[in-house]
Design goal:
heterodimer, A: alpha+beta, eleven-stranded mixed β-sheet, 13 strands, elongated, B: mainly alpha, 0% strand
């Protein structure tokens, strides 16, 4: 009994494939368009997935709590006295000032991030030498030296032993010797970075001695971070605490295929797909109508015709979906998402080369499947059902 | 039997996807092994953001952007908010360079 049913389904599938082969040019065109759309959509899903995984995993080690100061609605330098006040709160460990800022390089048109590291950071107990640094790291007390990211080294055409000259707050050119390079695996974090001794950075930006860019706060119990943030805001209303969870949430949202610029691309491709499905749903060709009429006239049941159309839709959609997903995966894994990179790069002068390891996310692929394959099959079956429940004579005459 | 060809095609596509996925395993393993080093760097330098987009403050440090993060200071930046296409630039910016303090619109008769 079971084999009879299986055999019947296979025969209908065989008939469906023969029918599709008779209209091979049209169906091949549909497969290509369908696969191209799935390729674009799945490339976006794989690219954002890979970036999100990398960002969240790497920034897991970012500070537990940062405290900035906002003045007139924007970020302002924070008085070191705020740090002393925060350090007295119960549950707070160390409070470390961070010194950093931006530098627009008029010669290359690039923006660098300048970061200062103090002797306190260099001598932190238990710290192991950084393996992602080529050359040497800054030593306590050392001045007029720097470590630079790969992007900076490329645009400035310098390497270890070279010099980087930057115009300071007084308009004087200051030269720093490059003693180290951040190795390429770290380029997603350090591409535009110039690491200077803290004293040099403060002098460069003309920062007052009693101010820092922001404060890095260690909280003993990670569950207390929100509580500490609230206490800081009660005592310092102009402070702006940024927790580790907020940083993670920012990147979770940024690289979500359901948001941002990538959503715009996603929606564009989806709209194109919907037009394709709508076109399919709003009418059968004269040939298809005649075929349904003949099948009904020779004794096919409506359910058989629906199964035939279901097979047709499923065969085309599955072949195209798998082809699109495979091509999308290869595009991201093998070719570094070359077609999407210009969109992602935007106007960045120093966009890092990204090493991507796409992950197959069953949830995202499931969503993609239900947004493409399912509507397509429905769009194939519904008009056929309409034709199949009509009198065969009328269907054939109408066609 | 045409359905054999269909099943064969679908199997080939799945096989190709699986092969590509397996081929990316060493790259994923390498990235995983570098993760500890990257985290050490993030921890040591107190980094908060990826160095992806350097064109503006809020793209370089999205997690640190001002609450009102509308267009911020960056040399030669181009307007990108819809409002910018409606609001005309302020009068001083519309004056040609070196035109002095007398805009042509307010010239005496």
């Amino acid at each position: 009994m079971g084999s009879y049913h299986l055999g019947r389904h296979l025969k209908i599938l065989e008939f469906a494939l023969s029918s599709m082969l008779r209209r091979r040019t049209k169906n091949l065109g549909l497969v290509l368009v369908f696969a191209a759309l799935v390729f674009l959509l799945s490339s976006i899903v794989f690219l954002t997935g890979a970036l999100r995984t990398e960002a969240l995993a790497t920034l897991e080690a970012s500070p537990q709590l940062l405290v900035q100061r906002a003045m007139a609605g924007r970020h302002a330098l924070i008085p070191l006295g705020y740090g002393e006040l925060i350090a007295r709160l119960p549950g707070v460990g160390s409070v470390t000032p961070r010194y950093w800022g931006y530098y627009y390089d008029i010669y290359t048109g690039a923006n660098y991030t300048l970061l200062g590291i103090g002797d306190q950071g260099l001598e932190s107990p238990g710290s192991t030498p950084l393996r992602l640094v080529e050359g040497s790291f800054i030593m306590p007390g050392q001045r007029r030296v720097c470590l630079i990211g790969e992007g900076v080294a490329e645009v400035r055409g310098t390497r270890i032993g070279g010099m980087v000259s930057l115009r300071d707050a007084r308009g004087w050119m200051q030269e720093y010797e490059v003693i180290g390079l951040f190795a390429s695996p770290s380029r997603l974090l350090t591409n535009d970075l110039i690491l200077l001794p803290e004293a040099d950075l403060k002098a460069h930006f003309g920062m007052p001695d009693d101010r820092a860019t922001d404060l890095m706060v260690e909280v003993y119990n990670p569950h207390e971070v929100d509580n500490i943030s609230r206490k800081i805001l009660e005592r310092l209303p102009d402070a702006r605490p940024i927790s580790h969870a907020e940083i993670q949430r920012t990147y979770e949202t940024l690289f979500n295929w359901r948001g941002g610029l990538l959503l715009a691309m996603f929606l564009g491709a989806m709209a194109a797909f919907m037009i394709l499905a709508w076109d399919k749903a709003t009418g059968l060709s004269a040939d298809e109508r005649r075929e349904i009429g003949i099948l009904k006239a020779i004794g096919w049941e409506t359910s058989d015709i629906l199964e035939l159309k279901l097979w047709e839709g499923a065969a085309l959609a599955l072949v195209a979906f798998l082809a699109g997903v495979t091509a999308g995966y290869a595009h991201v894994q093998r070719f570094g998402a070359e077609l999407l990179m210009p969109v992602l790069e935007g106007w960045s002068t120093l966009f890092p080369a990204i090493d991507l390891a796409p992950r197959i996310d069953p949830y995202a692929l499931g969503v993609l499947f239900s947004l493409t394959v399912v509507p397509y099959i429905v769009a194939t079956v519904v008009p056929s059902w309409k034709a199949a429940i009509t009198d065969p004579d009328r269907v054939m005459r109408a066609s | 039997m045409k359905y054999h060809i269909l099943f064969g095609l679908l199997s080939a596509e799945l096989g190709l996807l699986a092969t590509l996925h397996l081929q990316s395993a060493p790259s994923a393993e390498r990235l995983q092994s570098e993760l500890a080093d990257k985290r050490a760097l993030v921890s040591k330098l107190g980094l908060t953001d990826l160095a992806l987009w350097t064109e503006a403050r809020y793209t370089r440090h999205p997690s640190q952007a001002d609450r009102f993060a509308a267009f911020q200071d960056f040399p030669s930046s181009i307007e990108h908010f819809p409002a910018g296409s409606i609001i005309a630039p302020p009068e001083p910016l519309r004056m040609p360079v070196g035109a002095g303090s007398a805009p042509s619109r307010h010239r005496d008769p």
